[in-house]
Amino acid sequence: MRRRSTRATVIGVISDTHGLLRPEALAALAGVDRIVHAGDIGSAAVLDALRAIAPVIAVRGNNDRGAWAASIPETVTTDVGAVRLHVVHDVNTLRGDPAERGIDVVIAGHSHRPRVERRGRWLLVNPGSAGPRRFSLPIAVARLHVGPGGARARVIPLLEDGAPRRAPQASRARRAP
């Protein structure tokens, strides 16, 4: 049975680090309650650094090989409050309708293309790649908010035109002339 919670849980979602954990990704994940890594991790050191921020759920991607990755599962299904999450590296490996298995949110990586998309009764969250740039695709992570009203997510771009994203400037009130 799934628990109901009155407080939102914030889950940092990251994927396709390929051994590169950018300081911008660590900053974007700071303060989350949990972290999900959707595969192509690249090394155990990436998971260790993420665990310093919050508990980590991780799946193995198609490039995660070697002894360090042997114990990482290919999929994980878990409940966060009243929301059931299914984590897989490549969304194209899903069989059937996840909602028929009680899944509310599918978290996947692999494509390096960030997106949050409602697919019928379930939400797809792909944070994109937080690792080495691939073609002209953005570098990003995501935040998933799970609360009494369900789940909502947003992509957080980490770089703008290859440079670290600047924090928004506070607007200042101007004096009337």
Topology:
Layout: E1 9-14, H1 23-29, E2 34-37, H2 44-51, E3 56-58, E4 75-80, E5 83-88, E6 105-107, E7 115-119, E8 122-126, E9 140-147, E10 150-157, E11 159-160, E12 163-164
Parallel strand pairs: 1-2, 2-3, 5-6, 6-8
Antiparallel strand pairs: 1-9, 4-5, 7-8, 9-10, 11-12
Description:
- 37% of the residues are buried.
- The termini are far apart.
- The protein has 177 residues and is mainly beta.
- The protein has helices at 23-29, 44-51; strands at 9-14, 34-37, 56-58, 75-80, 83-88, 105-107, 115-119, 122-126, 140-147, 150-157, 159-160, 163-164.
- It is globular and about 35 Å long.
- The model is unreliable at 166-177 (pLDDT under 50).
- The strands form three sheets. Strands 3-2-1-9-10 form a five-stranded mixed β-sheet, covered by helices on one side. It has a five-stranded mixed β-sheet with strand order 4-5-6-8-7, with no helix packed on it. It has a two-stranded antiparallel ribbon with strand order 11-12.
- The chain has one domain (9-161): Purple Acid Phosphatase, chain A, domain 2.
- It contains two helices and twelve strands; from the N terminus they run βαβαββββββββββ.
